[in-house]
Design goal:
Helix content: 25-40%
CATH topology: Rossmann fold
Order of helices and strands: HHEHHEHEEEEEHEHEEHHHEEEEE
Low-confidence stretches: 325-379
Strand order of the largest sheet: 3-2-1-8-9-10
Structural class: alpha/beta
Shape: globular
Number of strands: 15
Length: about 375
Amino acid sequence: MSCNYAEGLSPYEHKGILGVPEKFEPLEKFNKKCDLLAQYISQSKHVVVHTGAGISTSAGIPDFRGPNGVWTLEKQGKKPSTNVSFADAKPTKTHMILKKLVECNKVQYVVSQNIDGLHLKSGLSRKHLAELHGNMFVDECNVCKRQFVRNRPVETVGKKCSGVPCAAEHVGGRPCRGRLYDGVLDWEHSLPDNDLLMAEWHSSIADLSICLGTTLQIIPSGNLPLETAKYGGKLVICNLQPTKHDNKADLVINYYVDDILEKVMNILGLDIPTYNEADDLSKMAESAIIDWTINRKDVLALEKIFKAKCKGVKKKRSLIKSKRNSAEPSTNSNDDEVDDKSKIIKLEVQENSITEGITANGDVKTESVEQNGTEQNQG
């Protein structure tokens, strides 16, 4: 359960802006924006989708910073009333739609901040998925770094040893004396190298990045969609709460992500698949050893594409959209450059920072915060 996962993390005070009121587009505006999103997808050659906790709430897994999020309620001394276990949770309509869009070559890559394993359960290929913060259904060898699918969620978080020997030789690798550790990151851990590289390079070469169910507060994952915009691509944000990057987006849709993608699929004339246990790798892992390691050949191939397109290309410095509809939510945010992309953000609040909060009309008021005490970013 996400509550148990949150409780298993190291104590950490600064978890970002919590409990910002949710906003919903009027129906007519919602329909027009979904039409535009479908048009963007149809016209794009390389689409990357960035997913956060908001895409799993309809599966019964609470988010973290929403009005009823785990950390929002924690601050009030409460816990979510709905909290389905990771073992019992099934992929949502959004998870299944993303799998379909990848199979139809409408989406080229998915970058996930989620540790719930629902992308894996949906049948989405590892070739098309980066998991920046780990996966409750994956173990990793501490020596050869191979990853293996589990048939049940890990019982620990923070890369703790399970004592199980590495199974590399059973999947075509060399015999390895390593031991398996849970693959779920804690606050201080480095992001997995290949996942981060693939996420950054795909985001840079994309002509469209779509953010689903994330407030984009955790970096570097929250800043990866900006790479698309900096290289001239479009940025779309779909979330119930405003985000710090709304004023850099070409399109913002405040509505349930399941409803947004269902409408888009109808416009594109595509069927929405249902969850099938036969495609669920966690079910297959009950009777077989499933390798979940990113293929190094895929990393090298993407590196060539990235260098061919982006090397020597000057990035845009200003991304703020001057012609955005004033009725759409926005945040006051500077275009920050992130040099250290090896850590999950630790929000070290400085004494001279501007206090975060919510204005009377429900907009977010951001503050300057520092990552690892060295550089300023916005949470």
